[in-house]
Amino acid sequence: MVPRPLFTALCASLTITLLVAAKGAWALPYSVLVESNTDRSSNEIYLANYGSYADLLSNTLDASSAYSALNVSSNFSVGGYTMVGTGYSVLLESNDDRSSNEIYVANYASYADLLSNTLAPTSAYSLLNVSSAFSVGGFTFDGTGYSVLLESDADRSTNEIYIAHYASYADLLSNTLDPKSGYSALNVSSNFSVGGISFDGGGYSVLLESDADRSTNEIYLANYASYEDLINNTLAPTSGYSLLNVSSAFSVGGLAIDWQQDGGGPGDGGPGDGSGPGGTPVAEPATLYLMALAGLLLARRARRRRPH
């Protein structure tokens, strides 16, 4: 099922209008990966693509949006999704806690390869062994390496979000953590879970998805102007709800932003060799929306599902 658009939401529309005026409507393309909640042999993965951040907020789909032939094993679920140069990486996490082969990185040299599920030879298991108390909430390449966002399975007031950072693809595979790794002060509302994280060339976006299916305010974009702001949970005023209404049969598996417009890869022999948007802890996202709006005017549990 393709996410169905909502055409009326006054608050979100106002946010979009203000964004266009204040930020020039961020022209970077965005992509949201949605995964079927039940195991399927086809149409399990859908790529919802947007030409800009404003399009993501208004849920104006790009014509390139399509289903992928990727058929995720019934033992795994998508934990994250990122662009690396001209390529794509999809992080798959075992639904059951494992001591080995818990994380698999599926790499694709191009968008066409992602749609046809033509794996790059760099695809491999990582030695990352996720604590049984956490699940992967997102995955992104940020120019300095790779970040894997881990979210506590149980709601917490502190230490709910951990950012595991790796300086290279090789380090991700060997689970060699970079000193940048650390807990974020982001405190996700008990009604939401992290659906993805992405880097936009300067800052970060964390996509939050309602654990319960909603007709409005189901998807919230928490934006951060820098990695330090992400760690400190200092929200950018561009943060806001999207009109994206995810089908009840699907959940968000990842968020990717095409910030590498020149097509250059990371240069570390990683999967992209197929050749943006910024405190208090995050409570109910409605509160954050009001804060963001005020700032502009002034200047599963993940669906933590392991469902298969």
How would you summarize what this structure contains?
The protein is of the alpha+beta class and 308 residues long.
Distance between the termini: 18 Å
Secondary-structure element order, as H and E? Answer: HEEHEEEEHEEEEHEEEEHEEH
**Rg calculated over all Cα atoms:** 17 Å
- Structural class estimated from helices and strands: alpha+beta
Major beta-sheet overview: 4 strands, antiparallel
Overall pLDDT level: 82
Q: Can you tell me the overall shape? A: globular
> Number of DSSP strands?
16
Order of strands across the widest beta sheet? 3-2-1-16
Bin the helical content.
10-25%
How many distinct helices?
6
Structure overview:
With 308 residues, the protein is an alpha+beta fold. It is 17% helix and 32% strand. It has six helices and 16 strands. The strands form four sheets. A four-stranded antiparallel sheet has the order 3-2-1-16. A four-stranded antiparallel sheet has the order 4-5-6-7. A hairpin with a 2-residue loop joins β4 and β5. The radius of gyration is 17 Å and the shape is globular. The protein starts with 9 loop residues before the first helix and ends in a 10-residue tail after the last helix.
Write the layout of secondary structure elements.
Elements (H helix, E strand, L loop, with lengths): L9 H14 L6 E7 L8 E6 L2 H6 L7 E3 L7 E9 L2 E8 L8 E6 L2 H6 L7 E3 L7 E8 L4 E7 L8 E6 L2 H6 L7 E3 L7 E8 L4 E7 L8 E6 L2 H6 L7 E3 L7 E8 L27 H14 L10
Antiparallel strand pairs: 1-2, 1-16, 2-3, 4-5, 5-6, 6-7, 8-9, 9-10, 10-11, 12-13, 13-14, 14-15
